[in-house]
UniProtKB/TrEMBL annotation, chains A, B:
Catalytic activity: Release of a C-terminal amino acid with broad specificity, except for -Pro
Cofactor note: Binds 1 zinc ion per subunit.
GO molecular function: metal ion binding; metallocarboxypeptidase activity
Organism encoding this protein: Rhodovarius crocodyli
Protein name per the record: Metal-dependent carboxypeptidase
EC code(s) of this entry: 3.4.17.19
Length: 493, 493
């Protein structure tokens, strides 16, 4: 560790502190800010982002990166991540960055109207421009990062996994789905309908229960908050995590399972290595890794038979009523219901990957120039028919449903399913290491699981890319077999 | 307006945006943040402050200030304020700034223990160092700003008024007090005791009422929030003002009048000139000006007979019970009670200035080197005896009660009483301009008053110093006669 590296650590620490300030102001904008504060908040966030960019692209940085030496796994990885951040910030011409920002912002606005009126033609010109600039960006980043153009985009969301690795994994899943989905539907039909949970579920009681379960899952009250926002998220900083949700009096599942999902994200942030706080290597490993942590809590843990037994008791203790609707088996029928739907965010565990596979293939083709924007609706509907056997009745329930592409986010979608698969793989490894895991979960006790995740995932920060993280934690790179085994055990046995 | 001035406007806009971000994070730290977020919040705030300082002291600033030209009152004043900010940021050696920051922080910590144990000797060494560094600071700033050393300190809280102007005003008040206070006490004794307001006053109802009255006073719901914190304050930014308070079930006055006080501050921020948002001239004119706006709402407006009649009706509508305790006359006896006390923050309108006069004279002497730190307790108790005829039983209720000096804030205290006097003077001018003001206030309607303040104070930003602001609004500089007339009418007639 020489002086140049020490200077870089100081500099990246300031950049990260600006990022933390921005994260807090972003949370505030969603959870607290009165509408009238929006314009000034935009100025504040733009200033923080601009100063962060200036710190990252100052001439001194290139000099320091050239002279920096760092020894040991952690500092070497940290220095490497500094280099990559610098490349990302400097490899693109300013005009391209600005044109992209403008195009994304314009397209996103038009998309809201296009989705409302289910009118793809309305957004087509703006989306064409967004895709053109994303292709330019991908091509410009590609040589600097030593990645294919699409991988260069994907890399900004999740480092250490390539489209060439993802495609066969997704293809294997597609084959699995072809037989698994009809079979799951058949078993589900045989088991009969669930008893509905009838509310009302008063919001203060929901809030208290969600907070209590979040804390019981291991999130420290002194380092977190739970608030409300239109779009639930996990924000804030590693020592001060801010979860938001929204409540409906007639539906207890949305907020409760939503908070537990965000708790998974929050626990990841809480477990990041303190010794590298506000350093690149001290951050979470990427979006797929992050999604693996929300899903290992929400899907692998909280929707397990064992935890549902605990959850049913807790719910009934708070909201009262008959025992039958709160039985684990009934909750499983309610909250693990499988169905072919048009909307990704409403999809179940089995069909969700189909929505992602469709988007992954299409965005790869868009970036490669093999798919024209004008052909998106047709390709979308064809893909839905092929993967799930259904055709959206309109584009609002088809290619217009997601904000991502219309906001310039290409390479993000795979993270959802890579995360779901990684969650299953990590859970299998954790289960092998923890005796009596289900008995613990049946008491709502996830501490042993959390301990395992702390050492194998959270505490690793960004030291390793996605595949290497899985290798170190489970002995192998991403293996869709573990996810399929999980689904088979849960839905098909 | 040439290019150099335009560059400066951009730069000061960024500095102000950083300040706004810091203000929001400061609010969050007091009102929202879990304890575990404190350390990281310190890093975030230090980074924002550091970057703001770097922007203000960059070599380019001196060049631009030398070349800048601005025409018109507003831009000329803006440029002048930029120069003054630059002088403040560059006139002091870095070592002095850092030594001062360290000394203040160390002393403040020791002071908490010293106050708890009423042990002045404990804090004396640390306070001696703070005073020494404040004197050095004052002496260094003095020539650069063209002000006496003490005025250079006072100027950082309130521009445009000097100690030489303040001293005769305070002397006049001291003479007034000598006869006014005994007479007020005598009248009060003759009128007999008030009927106490007996709670409990449920907190949610207090909160709703306080918020409603704050909004009725003219604070837009879309541009403000009301939350809780240990130490009530008004924070945030001009388009997103954040008021905090604290509630006691057995005392409705503390939160209610506290919120109305902070509403005065908030209305000032809301009324600042939008055309100069995030520019020096677009900020509030100083701490005395700010206090004049909280006090014109709390003291001049809300504790007036007219408004108390309205307030009594509102309170009774919410909390019910007999009519008698809520009669305006009874509320006046409760909330305009006069008494000689040791504690500044608990003081009434008449005796409050005595607490300030004492501190003003002592801190002037400390900075001039005419008073040694070791002699503070003696001088304090002597001053209290002379001004109010009482002697604190211990230093905790004497010279150790306030954080200000122990945190390095010298020159701040006069703002409280300059604000109280300015509030009376502004109210008198407003009253002359607005027919039927009391009839409006009796309906809780302060819109005409707010309109007058918007044009004569709020909308003036920092264009004028304190005395010039008063001259423009009322036709004369600060005149203690208006405050004395107010007190005479309220307490002595």
């Amino acid at each position: 560790m020489n002086a140049a590296y020490t200077r870089l650590k100081t500099r990246f620490g300031r950049i990260a502190a600006l990022g933390e300030a921005g994260a807090m102001l972003g949370w505030d904008a969603s959870a607290m800010m009165p509408a009238g504060g929006g314009e000034a908040r935009g100025e504040q966030l733009a200033t923080l982002a601009g100063l962060g960019h200036e710190l990252l692209t100052a001439p001194q940085v290139a000099d320091d990166l050239a002279a920096a030496e760092a020894t040991g796994d952690w500092d070497a990885a940290n220095l490497d991540l500094m280099r990559r951040a610098h490349i990302r910030a400097t490899a693109l011409p300013t005009e391209l960055v600005e044109a992209s920002t403008r195009a994304n912002s314009a397209c996103e606005k038009i998309w809201r109207e296009a989705r409302r009126t289910s009118d793809f033609a309305l957004v087509r010109p703006a989306l064409t421009e967004v895709v053109r600039l994303q292709r330019e960006t991908a091509v410009a980043l590609s040589p600097a990062l030593g990645l294919s153009p699409y991988d260069a985009l994907m890399d900004s969301f999740q480092r250490g996994v390539t489209a060439a690795e993802v495609e066969p994994i997704f293809a294997a899943y597609e084959a699995f789905l072809a037989t698994a989905l009809p079979r799951a539907e058949e078993i589900q039909a045989r088991r009969g309908a669930a008893i509905p949970l009838t509310g009302p579920f008063p919001v203060p009681a929901q809030r208290d229960l969600a907070r209590r379960l979040s804390i019981r899952m291991g999130l420290e009250a002194d380092h977190s908050r739970l608030d409300e926002s239109l779009h639930p998220f996990c924000g804030g900083t590693p020592t001060d995590v801010r979860i938001t949700t929204r409540y409906r009096e007639d539906d207890v599942a949305q907020a409760l399972l939503g908070v537990l999902h965000e708790t998974g994200h929050a626990l990841y942030e809480r477990g990041l290595p303190e010794a590298f706080a506000r350093q690149p290597v001290g951050e979470a490993a990427g979006m797929a890794a992050h999604e693996s942590q929300s899903l290992i809590i929400e899907m692998q843990t909280c929707r397990s038979d064992a935890y549902l037994a605990f959850l049913g008791r807790e719910l009934r203790a708070v909201f009262g009523g008959d025992a039958a609707p709160y039985a684990a088996d009934n909750l499983a029928r309610l909250w693990r219901h499988v169905g072919r739907g048009f909307i990704r965010v409403d999809a179940d565990e089995i069909t969700y990957p189909a929505h992602i596979i469709l988007r992954f293939r299409m965005e790869r083709a868009l970036i490669a120039g093999d798919l024209a924007v004008a052909d998106i609706p047709g390709a979308w509907n064809e893909g839905m028919q092929k993967l799930l056997g259904i055709t959206p009745p309109d584009d609002a329930r088809g290619c217009l449903q997601d904000i991502h592409w219309h906001d310039g986010a290409f390479g993000y979608f795979p993270s959802y399913t890579l995360g779901a698969m990684a969650a299953a793989q990590l859970m299998r490894a954790a289960r092998a290491a923890i005796t009596e895991l289900d008995a613990q979960l049946a008491q709502g006790d996830a501490s042993a699981l959390l301990g395992w995740l702390r050492s194998h995932v959270h505490g690793q920060g960004s030291r390793l890319g996605f595949q290497d993280l899985l290798r170190a934690a489970t002995g192998k790179p991403l293996d869709p077999a573990d996810f399929q085994a999980h689904l088979t055990a849960r839905y098909l046995d």
